[in-house]
Amino acid sequence: MRRIVLFAALFLILFQVKAELKLPKVFADHMVLQRGQEIPVWGEADPRQWVNVTFQGKKYRAKADKEGKWMLKMDAFPKGGPYILSINTKKESKVLENVMMGDVWLLGGQSNMEWALKRTNNGEDSIKTANHPNIRFFEVGRNLSLEEIEEVPEAKWSICSPETVANFSAIGYYFARRIETDMDVAVGLLDINWGGTLSEAWTSADALLTHPDFKERVAKNQMEGPKDFSDPDLKKPNSWPTSLFYGMLEPVIPFAIKGALWYQGESNASRAYQYREIFPLMIEDWRAQWGQGDFPFLWVQLANFRQPKAEPVDSDWAELREAQTMTLSLPNTAQAVIIDKGEADDIHPRDKWTVAERLAKGAKKIAYGMDVVYSGPTYKSMEIQGDQIRISFDNIGSGLVVNDKYGYVKGFAVAGEDQKFHWVTGKQDGNQIVLETEGIKNPVAVRYGWADNPDDVNVYNKEGLPANPFRTDDWEGITYGKR
């Protein structure tokens, strides 16, 4: 009899654990929910149990499936707060407090997106004045997985203050400040990044199985099953495509967002031609996984880096920038060009404020529909006129500017049919650039800012945004065919 009682007690304990109402960590006190669109809410409960959700006077209901999983969608609400979100079953209830309705942006990428505010130019001054309770951070700790998981081990919401902001993404903080100020809205930031990582680690198996360079590797990983990523020899995300998608990103999907900010590419530069395919593949994958349509996706083009070269040379970083620019063919995308803000000796430029400001311009145009100039000049066409080449641009804003008191341009190189490039001189002529090509036989191609570190480029628009590096040729680069 005693054994039966003990067994019954043990069964009751196990049943109670199973019946616990669970929410993903992204649903917690101080969170920001996305205004203006339906809001998915999900979690776990007792199998077949009804779950009730109450928010802003409205009630919603969902029934858990046989595995205890449930999801519902709340109505769209305008900005505002703070509010209370209540979730309950017959056995348990949870009350989430200080919830704001605002705009939620995801911060993805590698170390430059991860770069802490305290390590940037004027970072300490920014920290001292960072009392902004309507800015909230959701930080996802580093985690790897090759399969779907319910939760990440370390993740939490915090309110922006001098005590919490020092180690947060500098770009994220400055971007949030601009959006909070100009759009008068609370801002939530989902901080999901890992320094030194490859884009394929952030892409799902469904997407990579469609790409010939990754399908066999991903299929092999799936067949072998879960890995013990607590083993230091295995905890290397670049060795495992999809590992960060499942380990860090997938657990927050489909938490409603306004859009995504992305700063990555340095680690993929040696395979820049491949990036032409896998970067847009990743973006389309995220959009498909979220089920929100073509949400705004903005990224930072690689900065200038390494020592400048005396003569024009090929560059994997230039080819990666080109791949990033080509991805603008996807809808609702924008690129922040920072070819003038890099540092020759440091892959982590300390001026993150300018980066965030340029991203914010893109957000105002793409995400908020504002009539703003958000891009610097981009190549439109070239016309060969004897010993001169005339370059025309799009996105000149209120006019082209050359940052030289005499109007002389820098950073341009021209090649003849021999495909050998030479620096050339040139001047601004209204909203065009005229290059002098005397001495170059049969000039056929122009490149601008085509280097790891084109440190002297000086073409802008009057709004202060730099011209996008470009080339007019399609000759095979140094990363062509590298897989």
TrEMBL record:
GO aspect biological process, one term? carbohydrate metabolic process
Provide the GO MF annotations for this entry. Answer: sialate O-acetylesterase activity
Q: Which InterPro entries match?
A: SASA, SGNH_hydro_sf, SIAE
Q: Does the keyword Hydrolase apply?
A: yes
Q: Where is the Sialate O-acetylesterase domain?
A: 103-206, 256-348
| UniProtKB keywords | Hydrolase
**Name the UniProt record assigns to this protein:** Sialate O-acetylesterase domain-containing protein
